[in-house]
TrEMBL record:
Protein name: UPF0102 protein SAMN05428998_104155
Key words of the record: Endonuclease, Hydrolase, Nuclease
GO MF annotation, one: endonuclease activity
Keyword Hydrolase found: yes
Protein source organism: Tistlia consotensis USBA 355
Family assignment from sequence similarity: Belongs to the UPF0102 family.
Top-level lineage group: Bacteria
InterPro entries, per database record: Restrct_endonuc-II-like (IPR011335), tRNA_endonuc-like_dom_sf (IPR011856), UPF0102_YraN-like (IPR003509)
SUPFAM superfamilies (alphabetical): Restriction endonuclease-like
Keyword Flavoprotein recorded: no
Matches recorded under Gene3D superfamilies: 3.40.1350.10
Amino acid sequence: MRPRGAGGAAARPERRAAYARGRGAERWAAWWLRLEGYRILARDFRVPQGEIDLIARRGRLVIFVEVKHRDRQAAAAEAIGRRQRLRIERAAAAFLQRHPALAACRLRFDALLLSPRRLPRHVAAAWRP
């Protein structure tokens, strides 16, 4: 089975490279969140309504995290558009339906921005639904 988003063997090399960079950025982001005291609940959560890069928990707080890697962190922040935020929110609702015990927790939508030769920037409450 080929990884989603990579396009398999027929994909252009630059597309496969971008997919690999994105997966690497998600691994780095998960490591960073663990250093901040979060426990990773899910990675690359996908449903027809949308997808979420990382879902993490610390105490009674559950965060839905969009990971963006760009040459500059400002460009990474700008890359999270309204349409993408809506897809993440719908995917979060699907995740909570599957895990009803988490619905009692505080919920937050965060962004983790990565760029070369810089420490990751965790933007808490990057947007509100």
